[in-house]
Design brief:
- The strands form 3 sheets. Strands 1-2-5-6-8-7-12-13-11-10-9 form an 11-stranded antiparallel beta sheet, sandwiched between helices.
- Helix 1 (125-143) packs across helix 4 (253-270).
- By secondary structure, it is of the alpha+beta class.
- It is globular.
- 24% of the residues lie in helices and 22% in strands.
- Strand 10 (223-226) and strand 11 (235-241) form a beta hairpin.
- The protein has helices spanning 125-143, 180-196, 201-212, 253-270, 321-326, 335-344, and strands at 2-7, 13-18, 41-44, 51-54, 90-94, 106-111, 150-157, 169-175, 216-219, 223-226, 235-241, 283-288, 303-308, 310-312, 315-316.
């Protein structure tokens, strides 16, 4: 892998990741950009005990432009974009309209391909491996920033999810705090260890799902994918490496080698859930990594959570009163039925 670090016209960092070592990335950003004035403020909620990012500058961010005006496509004569090169493999840059910035963290955009009209599921295994390498490299880079305590790599796919740019891309958030969801996982892990004489919650959960088998979607030499027993979403899959590690940096070579095949198969199955001719399945794909500089990180297990808000053809799962008001999810699709469907739509 070749990594090239450069700057955009307003000083934001841009990083190219290439599979070949002889690629030269020297295209300059010709745009007359001025730095965006960001106003992110982290406010603590004393009632719930969590933190909220207030980022009013994001109201003016780009919203669903036509393909010919996409800022994530490569630059072409007369149409400069966020990526000055005329073509690229994987590119990462600081978000121009970040939710987190400065002492409040950092936000980056990860472009998986220069092809506007494809999807992650349609990429080859080599490209998926390059994206994994970029996620890993950026996790290390962002973890070194003094304000950062946790790094979150994710992809939102589909307008139903709230995507504002149609180009295949994901994001990376570097938080200045441990997120509420991770805090709950760590608390559950500590309680489990206390009940069981020191056993690890994540290890026991994955082992139980593999032994049960009813909710297992894929089980390979180095990865396990299953629908959780108490799935929150209509179709939800959790993907764990067989060897527990705290973050992407700690994955061994065998797990890295096998990941592209496993992950692409899961994404392709998601697109087959609702039958031939159905529109692409909207989803969130989220890497959960242990917080840095945290004494509990060795007990955490790196895993990816992939879920869709589509519950049936033409029907979405909305977060209404119980979910939004009380954080109590009601799932219309039994996890065992979801797992069975995801096994049925396996690729050849």
């Amino acid at each position: 892998m070749r990594k090239t670090v450069t700057k955009l016209a307003d000083g934001r960092e841009l990083i190219y990741y290439d599979s070949r070592g002889d690629v030269i990335r020297d295209a300059a950003d010709p745009r007359p950009l001025h730095p965006v004035l960001t106003t992110t403020e982290i406010r603590h909620d004393p009632i719930l005990g969590d933190d909220v990012a207030i980022a009013s500058h994001r109201q003016t961010r780009t919203f669903l432009p036509p393909a010919e005006a996409c800022p994530l496509c490569p630059s072409s004569p007369g149409r400069p974009t966020e990526i000055p090169a005329p073509d690229y493999e994987v590119a990462v840059f600081e978000n121009r309209f970040p939710s987190l910035t400065g002492e409040a963290g950092r936000c980056e955009v990860v472009c998986f391909t220069s092809d506007h009209h494809t999807s992650f599921a349609a990429l080859g295994e080599d490209r998926a491996a390059l994206v994994l390498a970029a996620w890993t490299d950026r996790t290390a880079g962002l973890a070194a920033l003094p304000a950062v305590r946790q790094v979150f790599c994710f992809e939102n796919r589909g307008e139903e999810i709230g995507v504002t740019l149609g180009h295949p891309h994901g994001q990376i958030y570097a938080y200045p705090f441990v997120t509420p969801r991770t805090e709950r996982m760590l608390a559950s892990a500590a309680a489990h260890a206390a009940r069981t004489g020191g056993r690890n919650l994540f290890d026991d959960t994955v082992a139980a799902e593999r032994d049960d088998g009813r909710r297992t979607v894929l089980a390979t030499g180095h990865w396990t994918a299953f629908v959780p027993y108490a799935a929150h979403w209509p179709y939800e899959v959790h993907l764990y490496p067989r060897r527990r590690v705290p973050d992407l940096l700690a994955l061994d070579d065998a797990a890295r080698t096998e990941f592209p095949q496993v992950y692409l198969e899961l994404l392709r199955r998601f697109d087959r859930i609702f039958g031939r001719g159905a529109p692409p399945t909207p989803y969130v794909s989220a890497w959960h990594q242990a917080p840095f500089h945290d004494p509990r990180r060795s007990e955490f297990a790196l895993h990816l959570e992939l879920f869709t808000i589509r519950r049936a053809p033409g029907k979405l799962k909305f977060l209404a009163g119980s979910e939004s008001g009380m954080n109590v999810f009601i799932n219309d699709v039994p996890p065992e039925a979801a797992a069975e469907r995801l096994r049925e739509v396996a690729g050849p």
